[in-house]
Amino acid sequence: MSKARLMVAAALAVTLPSCGDAPLTAPAGSTVFLLANPPFVVANGGVSVVTAVVTEPAGTFVADGTEVFFFTDLGRIEASRQTKDGVARVNFVADSRSGNANVIAVSGGPAQAGSGDAGASSGSGTGSASVTIAVGSARPARVVVTASPQGFRSQGGSSQIIANVFDDDGNAVANVPVIFTVSAGTTESPAGVGEYLDSGGAQVFTNTNGQALDTLRSGRPLSDSALVTVTATTPNGTEGTTQVAIN
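Given the sequence above, the corresponding structure tokens read:
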């Protein structure tokens, strides 16, 4: 049995009624829709909001206060949350490990075969859903770096450096840490003199468009020139470069 199926089996066992006060769960055969935002987080404290939308077999939202249980095989997640207008939200928090976190939400379980009144649907939902959250270095696949402008005068000039981070499918990836570095190539003075980045080598996270921004500046004497290479690198070693002429 796969790890995901074991997690579902354990979750269903938790939601079964027992003696005493049992939590209010969705009717058997309800449908759960699960979404993680963002679908990629950094390791060591990265947070993704996991949203479960639960509907009854009839297609209406479950009653307020319906308990939804959450499980993950990587990182941490709140154990349960009650619905409001059919929605339950919890936070997934990454630990120090990188990889794909399989998150499962469960409430009610699947309908029993032959259940339901004649002429009425017993529901075809499974009462559970899963979503994958990439943690750490699991997702970035390509980095495209651009500079605007491609050249500037030293001592007072600057260029904005943009790192565009994409996954294997060409989608922009948000919330990825990027480290920018700068080195001089062909130059009329010693390599690396005077060039620096506003980030100072600290991580810059991509925005919702998958872009991380930095600014290149130079204190090089006006009599010098350089062809400077700026490199942007993600945690899994994926990198891209661009060149800026300083004169």
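The two ends are 64 Å apart (CA to CA). Try to locate this feature in the token string yourself.
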